[in-house]
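Before the break, one more example. Copy the sequence into your notebook; we will annotate it together after we see the structure.
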Amino acid sequence: MTIEEIRKSTEFQVLDRKSARIDAKALAITIIAFANADGGQIALGVEDDGTLTGVDGQPAPEYRQNEFMVYATIRQHGDAVGQLNGELNGELNGELNASQKATLQFIIEHEGCTASGISEMTKIPFSTIDKHVRVLLKVGMIERRGSKKTGGYYPVTKK
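Here is what the structure looks like once it is written out:
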């Protein structure tokens, strides 16, 4: 899509415009929603009304074509064109994605929580939280303490 097409398009199930000032957790919710549905496109640096606001606090006109925003296509898991599974699981580049970081932050703030508890409090599907927890366990950022019935997840503190 061109910049003009993005500005003039109506937001719908597979297109969302977001201010560059968006909170990371709020952006993670949109990314997760797209990934759990049919996929979609997110344009950062464009207000809901189509106004170009740019990124890093710079007015959009100072940016060259396609540099005023971040434009990402999120593909549904299993999409032959995309590599979403590895990207969302943080396994392609060894880094956590925004939603995994949000899950880690939740565990830091609510030590001893369970995956079902995180899901209930954040309204994120259990299957998504379960995937995040498995990645966080795999990379050693959290640990499980206690029994299956009464245990929970805790951040790993570095010594």
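Residues 105 and 155 are 9 Å apart (CA to CA). The first helix runs from residue 3 to 8. Try to locate both features in your own notes.
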